[in-house]
Structures are given as C-alpha cells and as structure tokens.
Design brief:
- Strands 1, 2, 3, 4, 5, 6 and 7 form a seven-stranded mixed sheet that branches. Strands 11-12-8-13 form a four-stranded antiparallel sheet.
- The longest helix has 36 residues.
- It folds into three domains: 175 residues, Formiminotransferase-cyclodeaminase, Chain B, domain 1, CATH 3.30.990.10; 166 residues, Alpha-Beta Plaits (2-Layer Sandwich), CATH 3.30.70; 202 residues, Four Helix Bundle (Hemerythrin (Met), subunit A), CATH 1.20.120.680.
- 52% of the residues lie in helices and 14% in strands.
- A hairpin with a 4-residue loop joins β3 and β4.
- The two termini are 42 Å apart.
- By secondary structure, it is of the alpha+beta class.
- α1 packs antiparallel against α2, α13 packs antiparallel against α14 and α13 packs antiparallel against α17.
Length: 564
C-alpha cells in the first residue's frame, strides 16, 4: 500500500483526430517513472483529447511538462478547429490532490509547472482555480473567453498579462491554463421511475443553483425577476453539486446525473443520502447508484465509515470491509459489478508497485524468510510481528464495540480500533520498506568504482542507503511503540474475555521494538558519521527502555484481570 503523496493530472489537448499525435503525447507521459497513465479520451467533434494520469507529485510535474512540450511541438493552433472552447495546444492542465497531500501543496506544484512551461517553452501561462493569482482568473471560462482567435489582442490588455511566460501570444502553441482543483466525481443515482420530469424535480432540489423562482405554481407560475430582469433562483440543498435528471433507455430507469465539483464540501455519501430523502419526499425510491470513471480511495472510505457509524458499528475494520459497506449501502453494484481494484485510483497504482512480502501468503512469506536470501530479515519480521500485535489490540476493541450491554460505548471502542488500523497499516508498509532498504545498500555496494567520479557517486549512494537502512527500523520502533496506548486501554477497559489477546499484543509490540532496535545497531556499526550514529542509537535505546516498561505494566494488568 502506498504511503506517499499522490496527485492526478488531467490535461486537455487540442487534438482529437490525429491518433499519431495523441499517441506521441501519451508516450511522453508513460516515459516517466512513478507515473501511471489511466485514461486517454479523444473526441472527434470537439477535436480535443482528455488525458488522465496519476503519480508522485514531482514525477507528475515532469510528465505534464513533457506532454505540454510535445503538444506544442506537434499541434499547430493556427489550423485548429473544434466545437469545444480552446486557447492552446495544451489548453488546460489541472492538478488534483489525491492522497496525503494538501491543496496548498498542490498549488505549489502547479506554480512550479507553470513557471517552467512559461520559461522553457515560451508559452503564456494563466493560473486558475485554487492556483489563481486573482479572483477574476479563478474561473476557467473567464480566462478562455475570446478563445485562440481573440487572444492576440487580449494578451496586450494589462489586465490579462500572463502569470508566467511571455506576454506575447504564441501563435503556434497558443496559451495554456494551469491550476489546482479538487477531484470532480461524476455520479449517477438510480430511481424507481421512468419519469424524467420527476427526476429533474429531485435534481433541482439538490443542485447548488437550485431552480428558478415562480409565483404560485412551481412549474407553470410566472418567473420572479429582479430589478434588472434577471430570474431569481431558490438555491438547492447541496453546495458544489451540478445535477440533472435523464432517462437511460439501456437500464429502463431515470437517473439523477451529478458532478460533485468539490468533495470536501459535499461528499459522495452526503449526495446519496440527500437524494434518497428528496426522492422519498416525492414518493420515489432510490434503488442504487453508479460512479462514472475513477474515484480516490478516501471518498469510498469516508462513505463506508459514515454508514458504519449510522449502524453504530466500529469503523476500525479493514479497508476492504469498509469499502464493501460503502458499495452495498449506496447500491454501486446495482447496474454493473463494482470492482474496487478498477475504480479506485490508489488500487490501480498498486498494480505497478512491488510489495512482494505483504502481498504474499503466510506460507510464502515464511518460506522466503527461511530461504538462502538475506532478505527479508529481522527488520521486516520485526515490523510484521508489530503489525500482528496491534491487530490483536484492534480485534479486542472491535469485540468490545459489539459486546452485549456495552452499546453506549461502541464509539469509544470504534475510535480506538480505527487508531489501531492506522498503526497496523503503517507497520505492514514498513515490512517491505525494510527489505527495500537492505536492497538499496546492496545496489550501492555494486556500483562501479573505477574512476574517482564513480567512487564519489558510489560513496554518496552508500551513505544515503545506509541512513535509510537505519531510519526504517527506527520508524518500526516508533510505530510499534505507538500501539501500547491501544493495548493498555484494551487491557484496562476492553472485553475481559479477550484480555489475554491484549497481553499477547504487548508481547508482540516489544518484540517488534527490540527486534528493530537490533537492526538499528547493526546498520550503525560501520557508519562513519559519529554524530548521526550517536543520535540515532541514543534515540533507539530510549524507545527500547520505555517499551520494556510499558510491556511489563500491560502484562501485569492483563494477569490481574485474568486472576480476578
């Protein structure tokens, strides 16, 4: 499971007919490591292609730059026509935070990309949405007004000086809009009706812009207007939501089709629940829903946890179980099977990531450990033992949450179980990271050392790899130690019938801490940076001593409960 930052990039290119050009742009994106190309959607009528790729931020920025560069080389806007509004070969390039990254950080990456494209490619760049330099540039339509044909004049207006790049129009490549925005979720809710009018009525209830105000009858009444003659509107229930009703002949039902333009304002499950209530008020029933395209994992996890809390059940269960609850609660599999591995962005990325140990069976893991290979070794085993320890504490929390007569405490235990799941997932991630750290040292050792330059590079690589091999087991120590609060709470307040499991968890936690400590020591043994070694070994010894004390205290409490 990836623990790193992920952003998505959805550039729109002004070419939807010539597949050779589209393939050439896609090739540039695919050439960058740590980036995955998810989708290419060309449109002939619009003469426009939307490309979707995702990855680590710096890699995404590099791929976006290469794609924009290739588009400016191959697409000549002087001869471009198409139905969609456009102003450049690479027309618009939004960056979208997906995992473990804030919008503010994403804006910084957008500016980094805009600055480079403007300087190195000589393309006028305008920043929009969250990256906009002024309120009038937040909206893409405002920037693109006048389109390519009108931009030679528009760019001379001081109010439309580019944010980056030259303030002269690039006749061949046009201008490009770069920005940062939240993830847009395309979502349809299914109704037990064939009536488009009734579906639209619900859509008007929920969408942000609502419906036009009328006097008397809501459909046939006279439109209410302001002093300027503009129609007044009654706002809908959901912010950042666009919606319309339509009939899908293929399914034989009407749907409410929505775009959730800011999932931090209106979540997927909130859109579903609000639609369900509005449908019921109009004598209709929601039968299910469907996601169009991909979705970040956090959206599904938030939905699953919402419905679990509605049931007063613990949210401290596995991701797979949480997502299953989300799918079933919103009927996402009503019209077609819902495969999380194909619909959730992070899971698509994991197909390309090598996590051989945590992805293997217990038998395969054990056999690999017992083989002639020096890795996985003690560090990976320490992390895995730690994950088992916190898993036991999490189990006690979940069993306590459903204990008969303890109904009022379900949320208390749910919160502890959720914390346990987070620690468990981090330790599982570190299982493979420890082996990768060892492999990093081996790779550095094997580097050529014939010339002085090669020796210098090899020495630098070995220092980096050794520090990583020290930091990873130290992180295992810290993370395993974090599980003691959960284990101690479960020993004191958890289901007494499972208190021994909390004790075994404490034994595992200390084993993980002590085992990882030994790895910190052995990796420090030959490292020449004395100050660094002293700092890390001192930190590790402190954690080890505290761990032994915490383990003894918890075991004492466990035995007291058992013998009571």
């Amino acid at each position: 499971m990836s623990q790193g930052q992920l952003i998505e990039c959805v550039p729109n290119f002004s070419e939807g007919v010539n597949m050779d050009i589209i393939k050439a742009i896609a090739k540039e994106i695919k050439s960058v490591e740590k980036v995955k190309l998810l989708d290419i959607d060309p449109g002939k009528a619009t003469n426009r292609t939307v490309v979707t790729f995702v990855g680590e931020p710096q890699a995404v920025i590099e791929a976006a730059y290469l794609a924009i560069s290739k588009a400016s080389e191959l697409i000549d806007m002087r001869s471009h026509t198409g139905e969609h509004p456009r102003m450049g070969a690479a027309d618009v390039c939004p960056l979208i935070p997906i995992a473990n990254i804030t919008m503010e950080e994403t804006v910084e990456y957008a500016n980094q990309l805009g600055r480079r494209v403007g300087k190195e490619l000589g393309i006028p760049i305008y920043m929009y949405e969250s990256a906009a330099k002024s309120p009038d540039r937040k909206n893409l339509a405002n920037i693109r007004s006048g389109e390519y044909e009108g931009f030679s004049k528009k760019i001379k207006d001081p109010n439309w000086k580019p944010d980056y790049g030259p303030d002269e129009f690039n006749l061949k490549a046009g201008a490009t809009v770069i920005g940062a925005r939240d993830f847009l979720v395309a979502y349809n809710v299914n109704l037990n009706t064939t009536s488009v009018r009734r579906a639209n009525a619900i859509a008007f209830d929920i969408r942000e812009k609502g419906r036009v105000k009328r006097e008397g009858h809501p459909v046939t009444g006279k439109i209410v207007r302001d002093e300027n003659g503009e129609a007044l509107r009654a706002p809908g229930l959901l912010k950042s939501v666009k919606a319309i009703g339509w009939y899908i002949k293929e399914y034989g039902i009407s749907q409410i089709s929505m775009n959730l333009t800011d999932i931090n304002v209106t979540s997927l499950h909130e859109a579903f629940e609000t639609t369900r209530k509005c449908a019921a008020d109009r004598g209709l029933r929601v039968t299910g829903s469907e996601l169009v395209g991909l979705v970040p994992k956090k959206v599904m996890l938030a939905a699953g946890k919402y419905f679990l809390r509605q049931q007063k059940r613990s949210v401290g269960i596995s991701e797979e179980q949480i997502i299953h609850i989300a799918v079933k609660s919103m009927g996402l599999d009503e019209l077609a099977p819902f495969d999380p591995k194909k619909k959730i962005i992070e899971y698509l990325l994991e197909e390309d990531q090598s996590r051989p140990l945590i992805g293997s069976s217990l038998t395969a893991f054990t056999d690999e450990t017992a083989s002639e290979s020096p890795a996985p070794g003690g560090g990976s085993i320490a992390a895995y033992v730690g994950s088992l320890g916190v898993a036991l504490g999490t189990m006690v929390a979940n069993l306590s949450a459903i204990k008969r007569g303890w109904d009022e405490q379900w949320n208390f235990f749910s919160e502890w179980a959720e914390k346990g799941q987070g620690i468990k997932e981090r330790l599982l991630y570190l299982v493979d990271e420890d082996t990768e750290a060892f492999n990093g040292i081996m790779s550095a050792i094997r580097m050529p050392k014939s010339s002085d330059e090669e020796k210098r590079k090899r020495s630098q690589a070995l220092v980096r790899a050794t520090k990583n091999a020290i930091e990873i087991p130290l992180e295992v120590m810290k993370t395993a130690y974090d599980s003691y609060d959960l284990l101690e709470t479960m020993a004191e307040k958890g289901n007494p019938a499972s208190v021994s499991d909390a004790g075994v968890g404490a034994l595992c936690a200390h084993t993980a801490v002590h085992g990882a400590y030994l790895n910190v020591l052995i990796n420090c043994a030959d490292f020449k940076d004395t100050d660094y070694v002293n700092q890390k070994t001192s930190e590790a010894k402190s954690i080890l001593q505290q761990s032994l004390t915490r383990q003894k205290d918890i075991l004492s409490k466990v035995e007291s409960v058992i013998q009571a």
